[in-house]
Amino acid sequence: MKKKSLIVINIILICLFGCLTILVKYDLTLKFDLFCYNLITYKITPQRTLFYKFFTFFGSTFFTIVATILLLLVYKGKSRGRDFLLIILVGIALNSLLKVIILRPRPDVLKLVYESTYSYPSGHTMASFTLFNYLNYLIIKEKGRIGKNKKIFLISLLSLIAFFVAISRIYLGAHYATDVIAAIIFSTFVLINFLYFFNKRNNYSPTNNK
């Protein structure tokens, strides 16, 4: 990605996140959030609840820690595992900071899971989109060992998991739709900037540290 393109994308993402945050802060998104909640929870059943609890696990702290450790082991001695560790640590820190700045309470709806922290933005969604899109990036960069069809399948699967993690947070009553949207925007911002930095670093590096 060229620097000018990155700047344009950053401006768009910052404007989207900033505008959404202002609307949330002044409670101007509640009708939209309620509409999304009613749409997703039109039918709450034990089977659907189990389905969404299964997917919400992929955005949990436990799963993120395990996935990070596995990446560190798979890419032992290389930068990719350490790169993701840095991305996820910064992402978690910024997410926590935003939560205590915005101070948005959890939705006043049927809660199928209990969360003690503030609501905006969604930590589960941010973690899952960061992790699975980083994995998608690694798959795209992989040369030789993974064919085109397998790449398409894996990228589609990982993207689908991230999508259902996001939807699960709304269905389970843990987050507003705008919490989830904000997390997607912010995780995209964090990830593309880190990847730009890492690619630039590797291009200037005299050794292959990928």
Protein described:
The chain contains eight helices and no strands. With 210 residues, it is mostly helical. It is globular. It has one domain. The two termini are 18 Å apart. The model is unreliable at 205-210 (pLDDT under 50). The longest helix is centred in the last third of the chain and has 28 residues, at 177-204.
Describe the protein's topology:
Layout: H1 3-25, H2 30-40, H3 46-56, H4 61-74, H5 79-102, H6 123-141, H7 148-171, H8 177-204
Helix pairs in contact: 1-8, 3-7, 4-5, 5-6, 5-8, 6-7, 6-8
Residue share in helix: over 70%
Mean pLDDT: 91
Number of domains: 1
State the secondary-structure class: mainly alpha
Q: How far is the N terminus from the C terminus?
A: 18 Å
Shape: globular
Number of separate helices: 8
Rg calc: 18 Å
| Stretches with pLDDT under 50, minimum 5 residues | 205-210
Q: What is the ordering of alpha helices and beta strands? A: HHHHHHHH
Largest sheet: none
How large is the share of residues in beta strands?
under 5%
- Number of extended strands: 0
Which properties best describe this structure?
0% strand; disordered C terminus; 8 helices; globular
Quick recap:
The two termini are 18 Å apart. With 210 residues, this protein is mostly helical. Residues 205-210 have low confidence and may be disordered.
